[in-house]
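DM from R.C. (forwarded with permission)

"hey, sorry to bug you on a friday — could you get me a structure for this? deadline for the figure draft is monday and I only need the backbone to look sensible"
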Amino acid sequence: MTKFVKKSEISTNWFEIDAKNAVVGRLATIISKIIRGKNKNTYSPHVDHGDFVVVKNIEKIKFTGKKFQNKKYYSHTGYPGGIKETTPEKLSVKKPDESLKLAVKRMLPGGVLGRKQLTKLKIYAGENHPHVSQNPTVIDVSKLNNKNIVRS
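My reply, with the result:
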């Protein structure tokens, strides 16, 4: 018989990741698994029991190959001929956190559950962040491969 976790039985943890010299896509897969709760034994796809992730030093994140100049992000204003495109190079000037946030967002499920899970991602430029009081567990991405994400 399958046992489903109740909302009162869910506990959330905080993790801190230093994005210095981390590759965007590989970091996004690690973050999305933690946010969805796939690192827990009680994972169920229809319940939000993921953990919070704080990412710091986002301005030092890396892209592989020539993606920093050539990758395109598209958005549409809703008006005819209103398609806009930008590159990570242009995006990093105004919003350095946006490229990682978009990568993680596209790895989460669409709909209400995915939007709720995306709010558990906190991205900051620089070393300091306001979530020190939550006492986050530090994850060293350079020593971590995608298969053995932190289990809790």
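R.C.: lifesaver. The chain has a mean pLDDT of 91.
me: no worries. The domain at 11-63+96-143 is CATH 3.90.1180.10 (Ribosomal Protein L13p; Chain: A;).
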